[in-house]
C-alpha cells in the first residue's frame, strides 16, 4: 500500500506509480471498514480528494485519479462524512464538474490558481478540523485550544514507558511455563512494523514538517533517523511534539490502541499482557482500553472513560407496543429466554446479537426486512419508511411524535445514513406481568415500565430520552392541576437508578416540544447533533 493513504496501491508499471483502490472506497461508501475507523478513513479520503482536485486545478501533471475515480472518492467521502454527521456537499461531483464550477465563479482569470487553491482550502479544512474534533471526543477528552491535555498526567505517561520491562518478564515467564522457546520480546511500540509504517496508520507524514533541515517532510526525516541510521531512542515518539503523544490525551490513547492492533502486533500473548498493563496504568487517570471488535479472531480495542456504559449483555429488546400489553413467560428459565404467549402482534422484539458499535439503523432495517419478508427490490429508503410508520404507531403523544419525526428526517430517512444509531421507541425496561388495573391502581414495585426512547451506542452506552407530559409532575390532566411532589420525587428516583446502572437520561418537557415548529425542530437538531458528537457512532 502506498505510504500515507489507505486507498492507493503502489504499482510501478503504471504511469503515475499508483492504482486507486476503487473497490475499497466503494465498500467504505456502503459502511465502515473492518480495519479502518470511519474518522480515519474520512480523513484519508478528504486529503486524497483535496490533493487531486488541487493538482487538477493547477498543473495536472501528477494526477493519480481520473475523472471517474475522483467521482467515486467524492461520493464515498460524502457518505462516510454523513455517518459522522459532518456536512459535505460540494457543488460538483467530479473533475469536470469542478472545472465548470471554477469557470462559472470567475476562478479562470488572472490569479485563478490562487483562487482555486483558496476555494479548496475553504472546502476541506473545516472538514478535517471537524474530524480531529471527533477524534478527541471519541476518547471522552476535548483538548484545550493549544492542543494540550488536561486529564492524563505526566506520571502516567512515564509509567507507560518505564513499565515495559516488567511486562516483558511476565511474557517470558508465561512462555517458559508453556514450554515455548524463550526469548525476551522487544515490545517496541511499532510491533512487527517499523516506526514509519506504524505512524503511517495514524498520521499523514507527508504533510508533517521535518525536524531535520535536510529533509522536507516528517516521512523523509523518520526514514533517515529510524530506518537508515537508526539513531533515535525507542521512546522518542513520546517527546516529539509533532505527534502530540506526550501532551494530548486523545492522541496518546489512540496511539496505545494502535499498538495492540493485530496488524501491528499479531502475537496474542503480547497483546494480552500489554492490554492489562495499559489498563493498570491508565486506570489512575480514569481511562481504559476495551475490546470493541475483532479481525480473524484477534481483538480490536478502543479507549473510553472508566465507568462508561452499561454492564451486561443485551439479549432482546421489546419495543413499540401499539396495543394491549404483551404477556411474557420464561421459555427457558436457566438461559432467561423469554416467550410472548399473548398479544405478540402488538409489539416488536429485536433478538439479534448487538454489535460492538451498538444498534444501527442498518441493523434494525436488516432485521425488519427479514421479519416482513421484504424483497431485495425494496430500497433501504422505502424499507425505512415502512419501519418508521410502524414505530410511529406506538407513540402515545404529540410531543413524542415531534421528537421522533425530527430524528427520522435528520438521520433515518436519508440516503447514506443507515449506519447512524437507531432511535427505538417505547422500550420495556422492567416487565411486571400485572397491569395497573390488576394491581388495584398501584405502581409496580419494579418502577418505570417503559422508556420513551432508547439509543444503543458504542461501548455499551445506552441513552434514554424521556418526554414528560403533565402526568409526570401533576395530579390530574386538567388545566391548572396542582404540582405533585410525589410524582416528581418518583421520577427523580427512577432516573437515579438508571444512571447508577450506567444509562444516560435526557428529559424533554412535553410543553417545549409543542411550541413554534421551526424553533422546536432547530432545538432538536442541535440536541441530536451535540449528543451524537459526544458519542461518535463509528467503528473505532
Automatic annotation (TrEMBL):
InterPro entries: AbiJ-NTD3. It holds the Pfam family AbiJ_NTD3. It comes from the Bacteria. Residues 151-335 form the AbiJ-NTD3 domain. This is AbiJ-NTD3 domain-containing protein. The lineage of its organism: Bacteria, Bacillati, Actinomycetota, Actinomycetes, Streptosporangiales.
Amino acid at each position: 500500500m502506498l505510504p500515507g493513504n489507505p486507498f492507493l496501491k503502489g504499482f510501478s508499471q503504471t504511469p503515475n506509480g499508483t492504482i486507486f483502490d476503487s473497490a475499497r472506497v466503494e465498500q467504505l461508501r456502503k459502511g465502515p471498514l473492518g480495519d479502518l475507523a470511519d474518522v480515519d478513513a474520512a480523513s484519508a479520503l478528504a486529503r486524497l480528494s483535496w490533493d487531486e482536485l488541487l493538482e487538477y486545478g493547477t498543473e495536472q501533471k501528477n494526477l493519480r485519479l481520473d475523472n471517474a475515480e475522483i467521482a467515486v472518492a467524492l461520493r464515498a467521502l460524502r457518505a462516510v462524512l454523513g455517518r459522522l454527521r459532518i456536512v459535505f456537499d460540494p457543488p460538483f461531483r467530479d473533475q469536470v464538474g469542478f472545472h465548470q464550477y471554477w469557470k462559472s465563479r470567475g476562478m479562470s482569470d488572472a490569479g485563478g490558481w490562487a483562487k482555486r487553491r483558496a476555494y479548496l482550502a475553504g472546502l476541506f479544512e473545516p472538514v478535517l478540523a471537524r474530524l480531529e474534533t471527533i477524534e478527541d471526543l471519541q476518547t471522552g477528552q476535548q483538548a484545550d485550544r493549544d492542543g494540550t491535555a488536561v486529564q492524563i498526567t505526566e506520571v502516567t505517561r512515564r509509567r507507560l514507558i518505564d513499565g515495559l520491562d516488567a511486562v516483558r518478564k511476565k511474557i517470558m515467564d508465561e512462555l517458559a511455563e508453556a514450554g515455548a522457546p524463550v526469548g525476551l520480546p522487544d515490545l517496541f511500540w511499532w510491533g512487527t512494523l517499523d516506526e514509519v509504517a506504524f505512524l503511517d496508520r495514524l498520521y499523514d507524514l507527508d504533510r508533517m514538517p521535518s525536524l531535520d533541515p535536510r529533509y522536507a517532510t516528517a516521512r523523509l526525516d523518520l526514514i533517515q533517523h529510524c530506518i537508515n541510521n537508526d539513531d533515535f531512542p525507542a521512546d522518542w515518539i513520546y517527546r516529539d511534539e509533532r505527534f502530540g503523544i506526550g501532551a494530548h490525551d486523545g492522541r496518546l490513547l489512540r496511539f496505545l490502541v494502535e499498538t495492540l492492533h493485530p496488524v501491528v502486533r499479531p502475537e496474542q500473548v503480547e497483546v494480552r499482557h500489554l492490554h492489562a498493563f495499559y489498563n493498570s496504568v491508565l486506570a489512575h487517570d480514569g481511562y481504559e482500553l476495551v475490546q470493541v471488535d475483532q479481525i480473524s479472531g484477534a481483538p480490536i480495542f478502543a479507549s473510553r472513560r472508566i465507568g462508561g456504559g452499561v454492564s451486561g449483555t443485551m439479549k432482546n429488546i421489546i419495543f413499540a407496543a401499539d396495543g394491549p400489553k404483551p404477556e411474557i413467560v420464561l421459555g427457558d428459565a436457566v438461559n432467561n429466554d423469554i416467550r410472548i404467549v399473548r398479544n405478540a402482534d402488538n409489539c416488536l422484539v429485536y433478538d439479534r446479537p448487538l454489535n460492538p458499535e451498538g444498534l444501527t439503523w442498518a441493523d434494525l432495517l436488516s432485521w425488519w426486512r427479514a421479519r416482513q419478508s421484504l424483497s431485495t427490490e425494496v430500497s433501504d429508503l422505502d424499507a425505512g419508511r415502512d419501519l418508521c410508520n410502524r414505530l410511529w404507531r406506538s407513540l402515545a403523544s404529540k410531543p413524542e411524535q415531534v421528537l421522533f419525526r425530527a430524528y427520522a428526517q435528520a438521520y433515518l430517512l436519508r440516503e447514506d445514513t443507515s449506519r447512524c444509531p437507531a432511535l427505538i421507541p417505547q422500550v420495556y425496561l422492567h416487565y411486571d406481568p400485572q397491569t395497573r388495573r390488576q394491581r388495584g391502581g398501584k405502581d409496580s414495585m419494579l418502577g418505570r415500565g417503559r422508556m420513551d426512547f432508547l439509543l444503543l451506542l458504542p461501548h455499551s452506552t445506552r441513552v434514554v430520552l424521556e418526554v414528560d407530559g403533565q402526568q409526570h409532575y401533576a395530579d390530574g390532566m386538567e388545566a391548572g392541576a396542582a404540582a405533585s411532589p410525589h410524582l416528581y420525587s418518583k421520577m427523580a428516583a427512577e432516573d437515579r437508578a438508571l444512571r447508577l446502572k450506567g444509562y444516560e437520561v435526557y428529559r424533554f418537557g412535553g410543553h417545549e416540544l409543542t411550541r413554534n415548529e421551526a424553533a422546536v425542530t432547530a432545538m432538536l437538531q442541535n440536541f441530536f447533533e451535540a449528543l451524537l458528537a459526544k458519542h461518535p457512532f463509528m467503528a473505532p
